[in-house]
Amino acid sequence: MLSFTCDYNEGAHPAILQALMETNLEQEPGYGDDRFSGEARERIRAAAGCPAADVFLLVGGTQTNATVIDAMLRGYEGVVAPETGHVAVHEAGAIEFGGHKVLTVPSHAGKMDAGELRAFLERFHGDEARDHMVRPGMVYLSWPTEYGTLYTKQELTDIKAVCTAYRLPLFLDGARLGYGLASPAADLDLPDIARLADVFYIGGTKVGALCGEAVVFPKGDAPAHFFTTVKQHGALLAKGRLPGVQFATLFKDDLYLEISRNAIDRAMELKALFEAKGYPLAIDSPTNQQFPILTEARMAQLRPHVAFEVWERLPDGRAVTRFATSWATTPQQIAALAALL
Amino acid sequence: MLSFTCDYNEGAHPAILQALMETNLEQEPGYGDDRFSGEARERIRAAAGCPAADVFLLVGGTQTNATVIDAMLRGYEGVVAPETGHVAVHEAGAIEFGGHKVLTVPSHAGKMDAGELRAFLERFHGDEARDHMVRPGMVYLSWPTEYGTLYTKQELTDIKAVCTAYRLPLFLDGARLGYGLASPAADLDLPDIARLADVFYIGGTKVGALCGEAVVFPKGDAPAHFFTTVKQHGALLAKGRLPGVQFATLFKDDLYLEISRNAIDRAMELKALFEAKGYPLAIDSPTNQQFPILTEARMAQLRPHVAFEVWERLPDGRAVTRFATSWATTPQQIAALAALL
Amino acid sequence: MLSFTCDYNEGAHPAILQALMETNLEQEPGYGDDRFSGEARERIRAAAGCPAADVFLLVGGTQTNATVIDAMLRGYEGVVAPETGHVAVHEAGAIEFGGHKVLTVPSHAGKMDAGELRAFLERFHGDEARDHMVRPGMVYLSWPTEYGTLYTKQELTDIKAVCTAYRLPLFLDGARLGYGLASPAADLDLPDIARLADVFYIGGTKVGALCGEAVVFPKGDAPAHFFTTVKQHGALLAKGRLPGVQFATLFKDDLYLEISRNAIDRAMELKALFEAKGYPLAIDSPTNQQFPILTEARMAQLRPHVAFEVWERLPDGRAVTRFATSWATTPQQIAALAALL
Amino acid sequence: MLSFTCDYNEGAHPAILQALMETNLEQEPGYGDDRFSGEARERIRAAAGCPAADVFLLVGGTQTNATVIDAMLRGYEGVVAPETGHVAVHEAGAIEFGGHKVLTVPSHAGKMDAGELRAFLERFHGDEARDHMVRPGMVYLSWPTEYGTLYTKQELTDIKAVCTAYRLPLFLDGARLGYGLASPAADLDLPDIARLADVFYIGGTKVGALCGEAVVFPKGDAPAHFFTTVKQHGALLAKGRLPGVQFATLFKDDLYLEISRNAIDRAMELKALFEAKGYPLAIDSPTNQQFPILTEARMAQLRPHVAFEVWERLPDGRAVTRFATSWATTPQQIAALAALL
Hey, are the CB atoms on D227 and A131 less than 8 Å from each other? Predict the structure, then answer.
């Protein structure tokens, strides 16, 4: 059966499996001291234009968000996120497990607004009553967002200015970073991200790897003993070569961007398909997640043949659904869906 | 250069890579709902002789220990472990991060003693002052231990009897379980483990997999919503197929035991080699870790050619070293070391 | 200067100081095993009509909320509260420090709605995606609320029915319980509270004591080793006699209700006063907190003579203010304020 | 019945109750902004010779230890304490609840040794394996210790030098500080403590107050937003006047030292009494806790008339017992005990 439920339905890009095969019996130290992890770090620094960056390869998204946030906050601080942000909703309490509240600002199709962020932060200044509240300690956003949308360079610049004014680091969750960078709607590139964010991560799990996220501190100012914090938070792999080989492969010859482009091409076909067939799109997403609104009858008809996610039930009985493409989605799969619609 | 530093110097057993290749583009759901994880769970239930078991596939050892312990303890409880237990020493505070103290009993070459455990637990009964202390909530041991030693069936039975008397679950850390089961010194098998432990895990990372540990609740009584707890603790993989394919492979046709036997065969050769060359062994280990005592001169001579761990410096200038074999160690590597000695 | 900023501007009711004096040199054990704490527990059981109740005397409100919530939740659970609930806003992250998210439902002048609560909880049933979210583990509300309002007996009964349907305990924060019970608007009494809540606390700090909150588990089903949890959470006093003497005094001859009535009488005078002078009340509060809307000019005029809290700035330049009375407020103080207005 | 079980068997010193009475109806703000807390802070700064100090008044010992330690450590750090230290044994897991391991060094009648501390810390330097362990982040000791013993000025100076060498703050738990300062064996005073410790607290609960501990950061370098951390950890009193009035009283006219001297005088009489009667003392304690070794027969004879603690059972059937004096112990009580012996 055809599946568009998410961008991690398949294994890894073949080049990754190939590299795992070829290096399999080389003896290398554990915990990220292997030569593959070293290569991965170097290539990421080069691709992001930040030669002094600290780069760490962690297991997956939840672990990465929880680890970075806990490492950068003091105990009395919380992380500010859009109310639809992944850390605000879908991390199973991993942020709170580290003792931190997620403080929310309004979400506009997944994005926070710099002005609203400023207003939120401003309230903590010169107001003693706020000493009884969790203080904002960093700002979190995802790019692309959980709704497939992208902040423009200007929007990120404005948010960064607010962060700077309030001395808060900006953390960019790039679980689907490739699908943002490869989007025609993106007006920034990886070095821009590295310049605007104080810390960000490059998603591997959803962009061609079996697992792994690369955390980047562009200025080389990772929190002290971050390695130990990573281990404490369950985000360290003994065989550091596993993410090492994968990211070394993804960042060789622009593979990361190239395979991301496939997802975007397929998603734009999907978008055109839904529009052509008269299905309204709940969100105008320029990335690999598309959100057509389907009737119950249409969903019932599709279900035996294609898997997708119901995102939200509408009062009129219809539903916002999610169809995701990935590095692995083929034109054939889009054609098969077209035939079904 | 030759390396005996640990049992995770290589990638994965070739059969695993082969299986990853073959299944790579099959679309399967995430988070453990894939068919490979289902197969892995079934095969593990069969191998352990506990058809009703709950089985979960987690990322790595630290995450697994932290998750299981936190899921099974109440907030005011701690875990009892030998003072050399992995959770007592080398988890970077992951247990305490979950709010729990590690309560220690003496270690005898890595093992706790049932009588000493009973004496420790007994002190908490009928003594009000203990209400100001962390209460024992479960018992943790590793099999094999961090020193390569093995509890006998009788020893485990005695410890289990103490646990039952004090109504504490027994948690067996099997990060190197295969290397215990394959040891000629083992007088118990996997079904015995499943009968004696309330929860245990089957190590993958150190026994042929790229990553992954299989947590087994033999009686099918996993804590409620354990899935959510696993995610919260950073031990869940989005691509559950990664550990799924690996454990499905390891538990097909007894591969897990078979590759473990290679490690033991090589370790026994190593042991014989050190003994033949006149190097005393600090611990009489029947598993894949061997602990020869070397002089500084000998270590200096070996270092350019072979990597190993210094375990402990002795007052006389010599050192207890650790040489570990694995599923991947070859007779050629042993021969090369023999030539160096 | 006159102060109406809160209900803890003074020390303790004179009868409490008297009792502390009279018992001062009696030697009694610590940590709640003193005879005064015993008396307090017995009198509270009698007053609440729950002879089998477990009663614990804790230090203050934040500690009490954090301790009760953490003791009753599992690690993967959160507490459901109105979005204006004290635990959702003003506990400095004490709930998150224990690892738990505060899940919010809409607030209507401080109160949750049974129907909205049911709708919120319903969403967690039969939806696998919810396994990635913090699960509701208990329901929290305050009586009176942070806005001075009171749930009716019917409203609490409806909420309790929802809790029962979803098997969640109901926790009632009674930091100002006396001021609710003494309100003419209250249609329930302490035994009703004890029947409807699974756990609640009787506020001492804001109702005549120097410190102390009495936690009541009406059915006698306090979590195991709750004493140890209380200590672990910083809510235990070595000199348990301090809250013991205070609650024994407050629950002798109905003193708790009697002194609460004074606060309500004064608050109703305050309410009448504001209404008579033409100041609109932002909330129709039947308890000891009143929320008149004042112009900036009026506030500027009052400030040199009387202290009060600014609750919320309105877009038109006016402000919602809070004037609180207490057991200690005198008719003279109301008269003085009247003269100023 | 006579009781020597602990130093918190009575209420408060009469001067404290008197002050609470006299100030009872003065309206003052909450949370430490009252004038009494201000006076207390000023007097403590003066008594400790550190005019720039930050002083905070917290509820009790467990809360204070947990709050200070958690505020000063990063998540990956633990606190180093003697293995008999209060935080290592008797805080019900409050330190671990904050996510931190207690790292222990040997105890010599309650005291750590500077050389052993240095050796312990040294092991973390230049050893990569240590990155998998909890790192030392501060050093904790109590003065007097849990065994009534006192570090000399030289011993504290040596420990401080080790802390400085390893850039770790030194935290001195002064739950019984007065009983140390008033001991004839003490060769240092409060300004010495303030000079040697980076943070310490002055115990109130055990030295004449109903509750309360005064945390002092002598150099005025309290962690940012320490107030919020105190609230988050359940160590803040809404009626800050309660510890305020008490510490303002204790630090007026040297009352704190004066009443401590009574405890020491009585303890020395106790010590002389036991020695005269031929009871060996398990520890040579110069402070208010004495540890006579009694036979079972003698304990059985005393029990109907006098309460005391059994500290440790000896193999020969005898027991180390603890008899504590306090500010409230009278010569009559000593005489009564003498008559019983």
Answer: yes
Cβ-defined contact of A242 to B211 (cutoff 8 Å): yes
D83 shares a domain with D200: yes
Q: Does A25 touch chain B (CB under 8 A)?
A: yes
Determine the Cα–Cα distance for residues B79 and B100; give it in Å rounded to an integer.
7
Q: Is the ipTM, as predicted for this complex, more than 0.90?
A: yes
Say yes or no: B71 and B127 in one domain: yes
Interchain CB distance below 8 Å, C78 and A101: no
Cβ contact (<8 Å) for B70 and C71?
Answer: no
- The pLDDT tens digits of the residues spanning B124-162 come to 876 777 899 999 999 999 999 999 999 999 999 999 999
Residues D183, D277, single domain; the answer is: no
Q: Among residues B254, B273, B294, which one ends one of the domains?
A: B254
Closest residue in A to C89 (Cα–Cα): A133
User: Using a CB-CB distance cutoff of 8 angstroms, which residues of chain A are in contact with residue C70?
Assistant: none
Provide the residue range defining the domain that includes A276. 2-7+256-340
B166 plus B284 within the same structural domain? no
Q: Are C71 and C110 within one domain?
A: yes
**Buried residues in A175-196 as b, exposed as e (16+ CB within 10 A):** bbbbbbbbbeebebebebbbbb
Residues of D in contact with C232 (CB under 8 A): 62, 91-94, 97
Point out the domain boundary residue: B207, B232, B254.
Answer: B254
Q: What distance in Å separates the CA atoms of residue C79 and residue B257, rounded to the nearest whole number?
A: 46
Does D218 lie in the same domain as D86? yes
Closest chain A residue to B175 measured between Cα atoms? Answer: A238
Closest CA–CA distance from residue B87 to any residue of chain C (Å): 20
Shortest CA distance from A231: residue in chain B: B92
Does D331 touch chain C if contact means CB atoms closer than 8 Å? no
Chain A window 62-91: which residues touch B at a Cβ cutoff of 8 Å? Answer: 62-63, 66-67, 91
Q: Write out pLDDT tens, residues D276-285.
A: 999 999 999 9
The CATH number given to whatever domain includes residue B312 is 3.90.1150.10
* pLDDT value for B48: 98
Residues B61 and B183 in one domain: yes
Query: Same domain, yes or no, for B146 and B19?
Result: yes
- CA-to-CA dists, residue D265 to A32, B141, D262, D312, D328, angstroms: 62, 51, 5, 25, 11
Best residue in B70, B76, B125, B229 for a mutation probing chain C (most C CBs within 10 Å): B76
pLDDT digits (tens, 9 = 90+) for B176-193: 999 999 999 999 999 999
Å between D131 CA and nearest CA of chain A: 6
* CATH number, domain with residue C136: 3.40.640.10
Side-chain-facing half-sphere of A20: CA atoms under 13 Å:
31
Query: Inter-chain contact B228–C99, Cβ cutoff 8 Å?
Result: no
Q: In what order do the strands lie in the sheet with A170-174?
A: A54-58, A213-217, A199-203, A170-174, A135-142, A77-82, A102-105
Tokens of D192: 């010495």
Q: Which residue has the tokens 């993106």?
A: A186
Averages of pLDDT over runs of 10 residues in chain D (341 residues) are 95 98 97 98 98 98 98 98 95 96 98 98 81 96 98 98 98 98 98 98 98 98 97 97 98 97 98 96 97 96 96 93 97 96 88
Partners of residue D71 in chain C, C-beta under 8 Å: none
C-alpha dist (Å) from residue D158 to B182, C119, D262: 52, 64, 31
pTM of structure: 0.97
Look at chain B and report how many structural domains it folds into. Answer: 2
Contact at CB, D131 and A227, closer than 8 angstroms: yes
Q: Are D169 and D110 in contact (CB under 8 A)?
A: no
Please, how many CA atoms are within 13 Å of residue C78, restricted to the half-sphere of its CB? 33
CB-CB: which of C91, C100, C134 is closest to A92? C134
Q: Which of B91, B99, B102 sits opposite D99 (nearest CB)?
A: B99
Percent of chain C residues past pLDDT 70, beyond the cut? 99
Q: Is the predicted pLDDT of residue C203 greater than 80, yes or no?
A: yes
- pLDDT of res. D130: 85
